[in-house]
Amino acid sequence: MEPPTALGLRAKARCDQLGEAPYSEADDHLVRRFLTAAHRAALDALSGWMEAAGMGVHIDPAANLIGRYEGRKAGAPALVIGSHIDTVRNGGRYDGALGVMLGLECVEALSAAGIRLSFAIEVIAFGDEEGSRFPSSMVCSRALAGVVDEQVLTMADGDGVTLAQALIEFGLPADDLTGAAREADTVLAFLEAHIEQGPVLEAEDLPIGVVSAIAAQERLKVRFSGTAGHAGTTPMSLRRDPGPAAAEAILAVERLCAGGEDGLVGTVGRIEALPGAYNVIPGSVTLTLDVRAETEAARDDAVAEIATALEAIAQQRGLELDIQLMQSLPASPCDPTLTALLSNAVRQIGVTPRKLASGAGHDAMVMAGLCPTAMLFIRCAGGISHNPAESVKPEDVAIAARAMLAFIANLETRQNAWEAERGE
Question: Which of 8, 108, 162, 288 could form a disulfide with 270 if both were Cys (CB 3.0 to 4.6 A apart)?
């Protein structure tokens, strides 16, 4: 196999390459949203790298790019290694994309050494994890896992383009997301490598970590509705202004989630006041709310408390309140057997296998409904992510590559022993 350091350097370099136009929708910052020209350019580049590594490549009905490296027996179940290649606006280069590049590099190392395994390896680039174009995230992994709701096809982006229309423009069928679903017996396991997006590994001077579980989360849309009016002629005492209510709501979220028990966090990420003119009192203000915790019970309790607080704010100010659930994802523990194999792999390359939970959501939490999952975290500078300052050390990426190859070897050993027991 190629030296692990070379693998790490190449994976990072490919992420850097995809951090600029035409792989970004903008020239001065990185934004690569689902089913855009930048997304297409990234798929084209990845397809070329996958084919050069000896993989069969195709795009499924959900726009997932899948490269398959066959095992010793054609059609064998696959270890799927993947992550997402979409970004938030003005995002970083390594969130998601690094996991895809590391999966590709593992296959390149196996292919260069002429190694075929008892299972296939598939590298998947999910096109939508962030939900930065349409108001729902992880559409691609949900489609592959067979848990997508076909109603997502009617969701529209900020320009009014529905997901169905965007799929057609991308050259895919508009009504066949279910066609991306995989049968459970075709997938052996799922491994996702991802930057930590937090400060724990850096604080403990560790290059990589093993994820034990992914937090539960809910996304909600909150709308306070009042009465639009002239900013200069409507007395303050006679206004039904949803703006101050929205401000109170944000502070209520901060107050109710401030304890941080069970990893509880709450975020208002987007605010929209309509009609949005300088001289008009808003008729409505809409907020997005993201609540996460390590357990579903802690998340649900917080959401209930927040809803009660918002109802009181609306009632006190004579406003109408609408709270709409946009997405609910359960807590997702990683598979104990795979986590043990990954921990052993990390130990084998001379790193202490630090286990930690993920407060961020990942495609792995969706894939857990289809197959056993494992996750590897990679240290990122300052814990910064979703930001152009996102940064990783080449030597950490090299260590991650070594750990992933060791995990693949451990999984092969386990599979061979299992097949021997069955007399295959």
Answer: 288
Going by C-beta distance under 8 Å and a sequence separation of 6 or more, which residues neighbour residue 149? none
Q: Using alpha carbons, select from 128, 60, 104, 76 the residue that is nearest to residue 193.
A: 104
Q: Which residues contact 164 (CB under 8 A, 6 or more apart)?
A: 153, 154, 174, 175
CATH 3.40.630.10 fits 4-215+331-422, yes or no: yes
Domain topology for 216-329: Alpha-Beta Plaits (3.30.70)
Q: Where do you find CATH 3.30.70.360 in the chain?
A: 216-329
Q: What is the pLDDT of residues 356-383, one digit of tens each?
A: 888 888 999 999 999 999 999 999 999 9
Taking the C-alpha atoms of residue 404 and residue 208, their distance in angstroms, rounded to an integer, is 11
Cβ contacts of 336 within 8 Å, gap of 6 or more: none
Instruction: For the chain, give every residue range classified as CATH 3.40.630.10.
Output: 4-215+331-422
DSSP 349: T
If we measure between CA atoms, which residue out of 91, 86, 84, 85 comes closest to residue 30?
Answer: 91
Q: How far is CA 180 from CA 123, 141, 323, in A?
A: 15, 9, 32
Per-residue pLDDT tens over the stretch 196-254: 999 999 999 999 999 998 888 899 999 999 999 999 999 999 999 999 999 999 999 99
